[in-house]
Amino acid sequence: MEHSFTKNIRKILERHFGIHSELVFVASLLIRYLNLKTRSADQGTKTRSSYANIYALYVLVEDYVNKGFLDPKMDYSKYEGANYTDLFKRTKTLPFGSKLQNHALNSRLNDEFKRFFPECPFEPIVRDRGAGKYWINEQLLKIDCGKNSVNISETLIEIIDAYVEAKTNSFNEFIETCKTMQKVSRTNPGEIRDYICSLLQPNVDARIFEIVSYAILKQHYSDVPFYWGWSEDKIQKENLQLFKTGRTNANDGGIDFVMKPLGRFFQVTETTDVKKYFLDIDKVQRCPITFVIKTNENVTKLRDDIKEKARKLYPVESVVQKYMDCIEEIINIPKLLLHLDDIAKTDDIVNVFQEIIAQSEVEFNFA
C-alpha cells in the first residue's frame, strides 16, 4: 500500500540501508505493518490515529536497543525480559499516550499483526504472562540483505517518531484553528457553523467526532422541555440535559452520554459490527440505547442492515427482535447536521463551539 507517509518511510530506509532499502521495505513485515498503520500521518485530526499498537511495538523495540542487543555479541534469547509495568509506564509518557490502556501489549498488537499477515509464523510480542515479562520477537527485527543480515530496530523507532511528529503537528494546527475560531465565533457564526460541519465527516478522528457530536446534541436537547412530577398537582418543567460520562474513545466499557431526567443512554461508534452494538446493549442489561454512528448512511438502511446481520448470528427471531427493540434511535451524520442547522438559526451555535473548545482542552491537554 502506498500513501502520503510512505515516502517518509522510504526516505528513512534509504538513510539506513542505501541500495538495499527497497529490499528491506518488502522483506520486513514490521515495516509493512507500520506502513499500514501510518496512513493518517498528514491527514490532520480528521482521520483516526493509531497509537496503542504502534506504541506497544515502540517500547519493546526501544527496550531492545537500550539494553544493548544491537551488539552482535549480546544474546537476546538469554534476556530475562522487560517488566510489564515499566513498558506500560513508558507508553503513558509518549505523546497522546497518557490515556492508552494495556490491551495492545497484552494481545491487540499480536492479533492485528496476525490479521494483516496470516502467513507469518511469528508474533511481534513474546510474553510470559505469569512473570509479567515481555520481549520483542527478534526474528522480525533481522532482515536478510543478500549475504548480510540487517537489524531494523533503530529504523522502526525513527519511523514511529516521524509519524508521531506529523500527528502532533496536525493536532497543533487543530488547536490553533480552534483558538482562532474562538475569537471570531460571536462576530461570524456562519463561519463557525461551516467549521463544525467540516469536523462531521466519516474520516474524522474518533475523539473529535465524539466531542462534536456531544456538543451538538447537548445544545439540541437543552431546548427540549420535559414535564414531570410525583403527583398530578406537582408537575414541574425542566429542559433535557445531556452529560458526558467519561473520556472519548476510551474503550473503557462505559456508556458515552447520559440524559437527565430521562436516564437515556447514548453510545458513539464508528463501527457497523452488530456484535459491538449488542455487547453495548448487554452492558446495560438491555436497556434501550441511542447509537450515534459516524456514517452518512441512511438511518433506515442502517437499522435494516443491523437486523439482517443479527439474523445471521441469532437464528431465533424473538432474540433478534429483543435486541432490535433496545435500539431506541440511530443518529447519523446527516441527522447531526440537521440539528446543527436548527441551532445555527439562533445564537446558540456559539455554545456548541464553546463546548467543543472545553472538551478539546481536556482531551488534547491544551488551554
Describe the structure.
- This protein is an alpha+beta fold and 367 residues long.
- The protein folds into 2 domains: 6-167, no CATH class; 206-342, no CATH class.
- It is 51% helix and 14% strand.
- It contains 14 helices and 12 strands.
- The strands form 4 sheets. Strands 8-9-10-11-12 form a 5-stranded mixed beta sheet, with helices on both faces.
- The two termini are 38 Å apart.
Strand and helix layout:
Layout (H helix, E strand, L loop, with lengths): L5 H12 L3 H7 L1 H9 L14 H15 L15 E2 H10 L9 H14 L8 E4 L4 E4 L5 E4 L2 E4 L1 H32 L4 H10 L7 H17 L2 E4 L7 E4 L1 E4 L12 E4 L3 E6 L4 H10 L5 E5 L5 H15 L3 H9 L1 E5 L1 H12 L4 H16 L3
Parallel strand pairs: 10-11, 11-12
Antiparallel strand pairs: 1-3, 2-3, 4-5, 6-7, 8-9, 9-10
Helix pairs in contact: 1-2, 1-7, 4-5, 4-6, 4-7, 7-14, 8-13, 9-13, 9-14, 11-12
Observed structural traits:
12 strands; alpha+beta; 367 residues; single chain; 2 domains
How much β-strand is present in the residues? 5-15%
Main-sheet strand order equals 8-9-10-11-12
Secondary structure category: alpha+beta
Shape type: globular
Number of E strands: 12
Assign a percent range to the helix content: 40-55%
Topology as a string of helices (H) and strands (E): HHHHEHHEEEEHHHEEEEEHEHHEHH
**Low-confidence segments:** 41-48
Q: Indicate how many domains the architecture comprises.
A: 2
- Average residue-wise pLDDT: 86
Q: Alpha-carbon distance between the termini?
A: 38 Å
Q: Given the structure, what is the number of helices?
A: 14
**What is the makeup of the main sheet?**
5 strands, mixed
From the alpha-carbon coordinates, what is the Rg to the nearest angstrom? 24 Å
